[in-house]
Design a protein that fits this description.
alpha+beta; Dna Ligase, domain 1; Small ribosomal subunit protein uS8; 31% strand; Ribosomal Protein S8, Chain: A, domain 1; 5-stranded antiparallel sheet; Ribosomal_uS8; ribonucleoprotein; 3-stranded antiparallel sheet
Amino acid sequence: MTDPIADYLTRLRNAIKARHRVVEIPSSKIKKEITRVLHEKGFIQSYKFDNSDGQGIIKIALKYNPVTKLASMIHLERVSKPGLRKYVKADELPRVLNGLGIAVISTSRGLMTDKEAREQNIGGEVICYIY
């Protein structure tokens, strides 16, 4: 697999379109960190890491609005790709939907949202946009 993060986002996108409650994704360090950020920002209900086999699996419980039945994540977009990396300085960090969405940024201090990176005045690689 050439782009495991794109595969992660595609699995989430497909599970949301199929209205699944739980999605299982092969685990890696960066996928665990993206999952942690999504949970902190309220885009997913809960998650669990299962390391019973060699690689491990991330089980993610998706979050839906109980009234409208819409998912909390409408759009997941991969920005920095293996063929074309996208790096930004601290003063050039993107704003997703005027602050309603998040941009996941890989910095020297770990994965964080665009807002957290702006507060700490550090730039990095823009992994994806989520809203």
